[in-house]
Amino acid sequence: MLSRRMFVAGAVVAGLGVRSGISYGLNASAATPLPVPQLIDPQANGGKLSLTISQGTHAFLPGKPVRSFGYSAPVLGPALRLRRGKTTEISVENRMDELTTVHWHGLLIPGAVDGGPHNVIRPGQRWTARLAIDQPEGTAWFHPHPHGATAAQVYSGLAGLLLIEDSSGESLGLPRRYGVDDLPLILQDRAFGEDGSPLYSPGPMGVMAGFRGDTFIVNGVSNPIARVPAGLVRLRLLNGANARFFELQFSDSRTFHVIASDGGYLPAPVPLQQLILAPGERYEVLVDFANGQRTTLLTGADRNVPMMGMMMGGAMPAEGGALVTFETDASLPVAATTLPKALVPVPAINRAKAVRTRQFFLNDMMMRGMMGGGMMGGRGAGPAMGINGRPFDMGRIDADVRKDTVELWQIGSHMMSHPFHVHGTQFQILSMNGQRPPAYMRGWKDTVIVAREAEILVPFSQPASADNAFMFHCHILEHEDAGMMGQYTCA
Ligand code: C2O
Ligand code: CU
Ligand code: CU
Fold it and tell me: Which atom belonging to ligand 1 lies closest to the Cα atom of 280?
């Protein structure tokens, strides 16, 4: 007879051989419990909050503490509850030895506080942003955005969550006990050295294809286990990876329901068995654990590598694996058991309302880069990328939009799919490759996957001057840093 003690020991030994989180057999009691970022409600402190960006120590891999970076945390950062109709004043101190910015990805706020590349926080300095929140309930996030160094800083651990709240989720009876039946999952990947340190060295091929690691981390740890009540659980999924597209599904192929996209709730839950999440995107899903069965959230292989990279033999599809395992715990109270039929209406923007059409072509391999010094074009850090033939330039405004208007943006790409993100707005997807988008993408979005072409209807309500312009860019962070970014003013 195998004693429990022996069984656990055996699992630990088996676990040592596991490298990239593909360890379905790992005993639950040996796995790392899913860490949940601390929830902070700045309104409990008069609407003020101060954050510190500094170095910490964190074990991404079990038993291997290493250097990391976080926002008032050893790694990642807290989840900030932001109430609609309230103003939150967040001040951030940069204790790193390089400059950074803090961008509030998904918030409808003016360019002056958006935290894009213009809102620099030098080492030792503090930056204060007053965020007047007026947008629907949903999940957004914050991360560094210094031009040319976003990828490395996000990779080093910097990312936090924003939970925008009105009263809609409560009146719909959705699970909303944070950390119990309302769990954020920050999905990322890393390459680790022997000592457990994240390694970041993209090189020209990693810039061209985007940098992927072979180990998945969820909320900062590999292969965690989450204990959930045996009812409906809300997962707030964020793709916080530099480049990887996650193709999510459960190990038992169970159906789950998408209830929200980047900018808030969908009109109704959308049943799915598989969900693609590109860098920067968020979806909230409801998963039913009433059957008490253990299940693992898996990701498939990421085939989003450029054709040219495949031909050159450098960029290959990245393997999939396990992200996080769920086990029910009968001692946790079940609050929600039935799926709401309807959520929050999303009135479709009429295409005829667009006052102007703009076209943006994402150049994932620019001729300038190819000719001027082979692969090492652009800023000398790797292949040059751009939009409409030009790499990003802090001193150049690429579009001036009229405030309180809607525009139709047509975005094209060539070699691979790019998640195109626009600051200062939540838009609607009109078409993807000439087709109407799937139902779960018909809500508010700030990031759209451009697989060849996409059309979006973009309302502009937030002001931005040339000094604090809004960005639009590919959210594959290596592409963004290599110049696949532009900026617009809004007045
Ligand atoms: Cu999440 Cu401009 O970025
Ligand atoms: Cu953003
Ligand atoms: Cu891209």
Answer: 1
